[in-house]
Write a structure and sequence with these properties.
It is built from 25 helices and two strands. It has about 600 residues and is mainly alpha-helical. It has a two-stranded antiparallel ribbon. Strand 1 and strand 2 form a beta hairpin.
């Protein structure tokens, strides 16, 4: 990079720290301020922050790798997590269900659902520990991608026996920690909003550059990774590479690491089933924290809609980078490692000055994901372990001290595990299809099955995570759908054993939970105790939400694909996608948006 590019990056980094430190005093009053911003942050800021947090460097690099290697079909692999399809469920019902609990963390929510007796305590403790483990895994994932990206541009050398990627990731993470530790959610949200503006500007520029200046040849080569760590060049055509309609089979060579996706139709169906289960159960960590911090049901829906709309620009950007990578490869020789397409394109094809803004924008994306994850993860130690079980009489000063030190310790652990992982897809595949699968069944059933108790949640979570760890140790190379089956199957068995080994949750607790949350599902014995006129309103709301979700899932997929079709200039498929998008949007407006309410009567 030039001196101008470096100056832009340094100015951005200093600006982020200054903005974060500005909010230090506002966040230091209590842990409610530190982790939830006292529920006073406007919905548009929460939504913009959510978009920034989802647009991380690691995810952008692996998503670009799939689109570069597989064309538009690569989008469908990332239904597993990168498409963030869970937003459709959060937008329609999961966001407001979580907000109605009026809690700080998902672990604290366990007391709301299972009571404050022993089974509620066990569920809360297991939830806190499992999410802390997931937080550390996610920091490892972010560190690998950001290390690869930043190392490409800053030229940081390796020393003390540690690789350059480790030190590059450490540099960026330490800078992000300064304002995250100092100012909590206030600093996270408002730095994310500023970073979102920078990210959005770079996206628009790159999409325009790719659309007007880069035309795909009719025949060209792409590259795929091999199982032994090498790479293989393959030939494809523009027609096949830009098609938005995925084929049933991929026909990747057996020695390719992507051959695990050869049964492509089955893989897509598996990812859709996984997303439906995951979305129906909600989410945890930084995503759900924004809904806990929202001010009403209506704002919960609005922030989700805005979040999803902004996130839709990520996929045209990825398509643009992949297109530029293909054109560059056809002229200079194919880019060997698909995971390096993003930094190579920026380094070789983006002009001086703009390069600095783009690098700063992508660093902003990495830092916004990191700061949200750390802030949310620390809450589980402070609120659900330290204050609840170790020191119930802790002062606000003690709680704030633990908030900051737990953030530091979580980051150090995540950086340490970075040294054990080879590539981004390796850790991301395990997080989404194995470790996450171990949490999926108990996380979902807690909403829909009245008989499930705290021991059922704890047993399912523990069994699922143990199975995920053993799968990683003993069966690291099995296809993702087998890994998912192992972890989720063990989790289901744990839920059933734990639930029926103990009595049901106290009926008073269940009645309070149901009246405030209003979930659909198997709640027959509890529904009978609710007033008839209240049940009429609940049933009406539930029917709208179920139908709206059926519309929202394809709406989000079509919204993202429509932008990709424009960048890839597939006008034939763009026309059909646009018609479908308009029809789904009209359906959502009349069935969901018009019914967004500010509050719900809880009796």
């Amino acid at each position: 990079m030039s001196v101008l590019d470096y100056s832009i990056v340094v100015t951005y980094l200093v600006g982020m720290v200054v903005i974060g430190l500005y909010f230090q005093r506002r966040a230091s009053g209590s842990i409610d301020s530190y982790f939830l911003g006292k529920r006073t942050i406007p919905w548009w800021a929460l939504g913009a922050s959510g978009m920034s947090s989802n647009l991380d460097i690691s995810g952008t690099m692996i998503n670009t790798a799939f689109v570069f290697a597989l064309g538009a079909s690569g989008f469908f692999i990332e239904i597993r997590g990168g498409v963030t399809l869970i937003m459709a469920f959060l937008m329609i019902f999961q966001g407001k269900w979580n907000r109605r609990a009026l809690v700080m963390t998902l672990a604290e929510w366990m007391h709301f659902r299972f009571g404050r007796d022993k089974q509620g305590d066990v569920a809360r403790l297991i939830a806190a520990l499992s999410i802390l483990i997931m937080t550390i895994a996610m920091i490892t994932y972010f560190a690998i991608g950001s290390g690869k990206f930043v190392g490409e541009f800053l030229g940081i050398p390796g020393f003390w026996g540690l690789p350059s990627q480790f030190w590059a990731a450490t540099l960026m993470i330490v800078l992000a920690m300064i304002y995250t530790v100092a100012s909590g959610l206030y600093g996270v949200i408002w730095t994310d909003v500023f970073q979102g503006l920078l990210i959005f500007g770079t996206i628009i520029y790159i999409c325009g550059l790719a659309f007007f200046s880069f035309n795909l040849p009719e025949v060209f080569q792409i590259s795929v990774p091999l199982r032994d760590g090498g790479f293989m060049a393959l030939e494809t055509t523009r027609e096949a590479w830009t098609s938005m309609i995925p084929s049933w089979n991929l026909n990747m060579p057996a020695e390719s690491a992507y051959s695990i996706y050869n049964l492509f139709g089955i893989a897509i169906l598996f990812y859709l089933i996984k997303v439906i289960l995951e979305g129906s159960g909600g989410t945890s960590q930084y995503m759900i924290q924004r809904f806990f911090a929202s001010r009403s049901d209506r704002e919960s829906g609005l922030l989700s809609l805005f979040w999803t709309f902004l996130l839709s620009f990520r996929w045209p950007f990825i398509a643009a980078i992949a297109t530029m990578g293909v054109v560059f490869g056809s002229q200079q020789g194919v880019i060997a490692d698909p995971e390096t397409v993003l930094p190579v394109v920026i380094n070789r094809l983006v002009p001086i000055g703009i390069k600095g803004f783009l690098v700063a924008g992508l660093m902003a994306a990495a830092m916004s994901t990191f700061d949200s994850t750390v802030n949310a993860g620390a809450a589980y130690w402070v609120k659900d372990i330290y204050q609840t079980y170790l020191n119930p009489k802790a002062t606000e000063a003690q709680l704030m001290k633990h908030s900051r030190w737990s953030s530091v310790i979580i980051v150090v652990l995540g950086l340490g595990f970075m040294l054990l992982i080879n590539n981004i897809n390796e850790i991301w595949g395990w997080i989404t299809s194995s470790l996450g699968a171990g949490l999926l069944i108990p996380t979902m059933l807690r909403w829909y099955w009245w008989r499930m108790n705290g021991y059922g949640f704890a047993g399912g979570t523990f069994a699922g995570m143990v199975a995920a760890v053993f799968q990683r140790i003993f069966l690291p190379d099995i296809p993702e759908y087998f890994a998912f089956t192992v972890a989720s199957g063990a989790s289901l068995i744990g839920v059933i054993i734990g639930t029926y080994a103990a009595k049901p949750t106290d009926e008073k607790v269940l009645l309070e939970f149901y009246k405030r949350t209003r979930p659909f599902g198997f709640w027959g014995p509890i529904r009978k105790k609710i007033a008839a006129e209240t049940m009429v309103e609940i049933n009406k709301e539930n029917k709208r939400d179920i139908f709206s979700t059926i519309l929202a899932v394809p709406w989000q997929v079509v919204l993202f694909l429509t932008g990709m079709a424009v960048i890839m200039k597939r006008w034939d498929e763009f026309g059909w996608l646009l018609i479908l998008l308009i029809a789904l949007s009209v359906g959502l407006y009349f069935n969901w948006f018009r019914h967004l309410s500010t509050e719900v009567k809880m009796d």
